[in-house]
Design brief:
This protein has 87 residues and is an alpha+beta fold. It is built from four helices and three strands. The radius of gyration is 13 Å and the shape is flat.
């Protein structure tokens, strides 16, 4: 399986959309801050993930989520990226 995932920075509302074949290890890499995106992301929540049988299908979904319509879909389903988390 290949995963498309969405992280949200705590308190800032910044989102990160990524793709990986190994979700657990990838999230640990983000948590350690050893990736370029993770350095800016800081402490985060996994807010969404989807599994796909192939990299090609996952890449199509990742590109959609990074597009204008995809960002709108994320806003509608998980709140705006520009707003702080509501707990």
């Amino acid at each position: 399986m290949v995963y498309v995932y969405v992280l949200r920075r705590l308190g800032k509302g910044i989102r990160y959309v990524g793709i990986t074949a190994s979700l657990g290890p990838r999230l640990r890499t983000h948590a350690r801050g050893t990736t370029k995106g993770a350095q800016q992301l800081g402490t985060f929540h996994l807010i969404h993930r989807e599994a796909f049988p192939s990299y090609t299908e996952a890449r199509v979904r990742e590109k959609f989520l990074k597009s204008g319509r995809g960002r709108e879909w994320l806003d509608d389903n998980f709140g705006s990226a520009g707003t702080a988390d509501r707990h």
